[in-house]
Design a protein that fits this description.
Length: about 140
């Protein structure tokens, strides 16, 4: 599948792992996007950039990093530093699959009280997410 940033300066191809959409409520995602970010998992090693002169990667934690276009600011991906796991901004896809399903909310204990989703989703706390990714990087 093809994807790109808002201005088109950063383009990529990717293979999706599934059509499950995840929402992150962590303070970094909320600050970065002025809301939540909605992501979709990709198959390991399939994120390939066609145009990447404006791609920047931000070291956001001990085990994670975020990719974005430094020309327009579009958030493109979050991945573990060893690149064993990566998800992309679902709205960066040129053709969004019609059968997407919101199925997971992470950092649920960081979610502000002024919004909520109607969907029934699996929910993970910050501690559960940190434990999951910390275990995979040891």
């Amino acid at each position: 599948m093809k994807g790109q940033c808002l201005c088109g300066a950063t383009t990529f191809n990717v293979e999706l792992s599934n059509h499950d959409v995840h929402v992150c409520h962590c303070s970094i995602c909320r600050r970065q996007t002025s809301g939540v970010i909605m992501t979709i998992d990709i198959k390991q090693g399939t994120l390939k950039f066609d145009q990447q002169a404006h791609l920047s990667v931000f070291n956001s934690s001990e085990w994670g990093e975020r990719g974005f276009c430094n020309a327009c600011g579009t958030t493109l991906f979050w991945r573990t530093k060893d690149q064993s796991y990566c998800n992309i901004n679902v709205f960066s896809l040129e053709n969004i699959p019609q059968d997407l399903k919101l199925n997971l909310e992470i950092y649920i204990d960081n979610k502000p009280k002024f919004y909520s989703f109607n969907n029934e989703t699996k929910k993970m706390t910050e501690a559960e997410v940190v434990a999951l990714f910390s275990a995979s990087t040891e």
